[in-house]
């Protein structure tokens, strides 16, 4: 296809792996654009210039300046490349605004774990530049056919575009997690240069505040979310988080598209973070990773004890509190648990004290550690994901690819990606993990007991591992589904 005919997409995001990642959005913002590129899409990523982005984006050159952008500090737009592998790179547009982004800490929180007090301005600017570049006010020659926003941080782009009277690109907003809404005091509307009239139930207002996400859902031409099941769940209580009415009104423009994963990066046959690579044909090498993981985490090195893994934000959403409650019974099974995560300080402290109490069985690493997360996927026998809700979830897909059947609560994307072990699913070759519902400590624990029992039956366990490893979690079909939506909007 000639490059002139390629669909041009501006992908607006607040995270991208490997420069800045706090969760699934970071992974998706790298892997979906690569998949779209492979489908002949001309895609550029628009990102805030955090220090890690300024450092990691190569061949940067200034392409425009916004010296007198009303309501925002002076800003420079840089263009550069983000190399993802030897063969893959992405074109990136970086918003260089040192007053808002040149600071140590996370993208949303300061080092003490508190929201940056100027988050409305930080992500208002991301949304605003996204809107300018997607309209005839853009200083660039490259004009997108579609503006693709992600989560609340770019939720105001469709609102700014709505109030722009000139030519503009249609917009898509993807909800990666409806629980994060970007809600700010009403005065923010004027501070960010939105018309006062937009502060309305038919506009950006949400229960008396300005909501970035509500604005995106209200004004975008199309809404997607990251699994079909979650698309249904958010149109009802309780997972609609107050937006179920609006989402139901817009249900004809709401599509659930399951996330894919980067199958190159998450490949047990080539993963450089593993102690030994393996495939479904050579599963014996997987247990070498288990021994290395047990040793590294200070657990008893014993292949006979089932080892469970958790890699997660440690939060109420992820069910960390439920896990904590069952640990005294869990260690008696016997079973071992490795947990990698951070976020909620109190949950972190409770886990650390349990690790102290049961040092041979429970190991906890607080923090973000990409390399260890790969070893946990490979070295664990079973992955635990008792999320109260989960829009899509990535780890259950990584774990299936690594022959580590997951236990999941049957919610959101976990329903769409994990097939529960039953006599039928075992017989027809689809069983790939364990799911339970409703979410109670009793159900979680009895499913763990079932796993321990099944693990002892080597034949069934290996069948489950092989089924899981054979599943296709690539972006192929999902990227094509996004492209279909883009095309329908510009038709
Ligand atoms: P969410 O986006 O809700 O946090 P997802 O399952 O969609 O959950 O994605 C989480 C991503 O972040 C996965 O790639 C997971 O491996 C990674 N991750 C989460 N916590 C950590 C951690 N402490 N160290 C390394 N990777 C982590």
Describe it:
This protein is an alpha/beta fold. It folds into 2 domains: 7-260 and 475-490, 3-Layer(aba) Sandwich (Rossmann fold), CATH 3.40.50.2000; 284-469, 3-Layer(aba) Sandwich (Rossmann fold). Helices cover 36% and strands 20% of the residues. The chain has helices spanning 24-38, 51-56, 98-101, 119-133, 156-162, 188-191, 212-219, 228-233, 244-249, 286-296, 320-330, 345-357, 370-379, 395-401, 412-417, 423-427, 441-456, 458-469, 476-490, and strands spanning 7-12, 41-48, 58-66, 75-83, 89-96, 146-150, 171-175, 183-184, 205-206, 209-211, 222-225, 254-256, 307-314, 336-343, 362-366, 382-385, 406-409, 434-436. A 9-stranded mixed β-sheet has the order 3-4-5-2-1-6-7-11-12, sandwiched between helices. Strands 15-14-13-16-17-18 form a 6-stranded parallel β-sheet, sandwiched between helices. Strands 8-10-9 form a 3-stranded antiparallel β-sheet. β13, α11 (320-330) and β14 (336-343) form a beta-alpha-beta unit. α1 crosses α19 (476-490) and α11 packs parallel to α12. It is globular. The model has no long low-confidence stretch (mean pLDDT 96). The structure holds adenosine-5'-diphosphate.
């Amino acid at each position: 296809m000639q490059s002139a005919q390629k669909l041009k997409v501006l992908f607006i995001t607040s995270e991208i792996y490997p420069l800045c990642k706090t969760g699934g959005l970071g992974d998706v913002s790298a892997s979906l654009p690569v998949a779209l590129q492979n489908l002949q899409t001309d895609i550029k990523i628009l990102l805030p210039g955090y220090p890690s982005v300024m450092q990691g984006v190569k061949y940067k050159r200034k392409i425009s300046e916004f010296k007198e952008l009303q309501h925002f500090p002076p800003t420079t737009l840089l263009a550069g490349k983000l190399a993802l592998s030897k063969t893959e790179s992405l074109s990136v547009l970086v918003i260089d605004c040192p007053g808002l982004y040149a600071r140590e800490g996370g993208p949303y929180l300061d080092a003490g774990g508190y929201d940056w007090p100027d988050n409305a301005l930080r992500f208002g600017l991301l949304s605003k530049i996204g809107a300018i570049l997607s309209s005839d006010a853009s200083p660039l020659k490259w004009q997108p056919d579609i503006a693709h926003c992600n989560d609340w941080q770019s939720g105001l782009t469709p609102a700014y575009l709505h109030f722009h009277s000139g030519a503009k690109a249609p917009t898509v907003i993807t909800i990666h997690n409806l629980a994060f809404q970007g809600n700010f005091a009403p005065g923010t509307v004027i501070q960010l240069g939105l018309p006062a009239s937009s502060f309305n139930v038919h506009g950006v207002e949400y229960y008396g505040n300005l909501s970035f996400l509500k604005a995106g859902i209200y004004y975008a031409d199309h809404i997607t979310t990251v699994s079909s099941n979650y698309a249904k769940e958010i149109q009802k209580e309780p997972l609609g988080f107050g937006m179920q009415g609006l989402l139901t009104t817009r249900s004809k423009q709401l599509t659930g598209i399951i996330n894919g994963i980067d199958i190159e990066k998450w490949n047990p046959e080539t993963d450089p973070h593993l102690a030994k690579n393996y495939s479904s044909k050579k599963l014996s090498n997987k247990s070498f990773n288990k021994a290395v993981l047990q040793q590294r985490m200070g657990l008893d090195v014993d292949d006979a004890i089932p080892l469970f893994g958790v890699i997660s934000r440690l939060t109420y959403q992820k069910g960390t509190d439920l896990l904590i409650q069952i640990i005294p019974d869990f260690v008696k099974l016997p079973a071992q648990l490795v947990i990698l995560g951070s976020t909620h300080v109190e949950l972190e402290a409770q886990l650390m004290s349990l690790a102290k109490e049961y040092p041979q069985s429970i190991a906890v690493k607080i923090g973000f550690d990409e390399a260890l997360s790969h070893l946990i996927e490979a070295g664990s026998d079973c992955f635990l994901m008792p999320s109260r809700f989960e829009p899509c979830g990535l780890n259950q897909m990584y774990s299936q690819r690594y022959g580590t059947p997951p236990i999941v609560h049957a919610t959101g994307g976990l329903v769409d990606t994990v097939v529960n072990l039953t006599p039928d699913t075992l017989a027809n070759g689809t069983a790939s993990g364990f799911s339970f519902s409703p979410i109670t400590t009793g159900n979680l624990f009895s499913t763990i007991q079932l796993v321990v029992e099944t693990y002892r039956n080597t034949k069934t366990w290996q069948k489950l591992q092989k089924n899981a490893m054979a599943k296709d979690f690539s972006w192929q079909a999902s990227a094509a589904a996004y492209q279909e939506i883009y095309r329908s909007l510009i038709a």
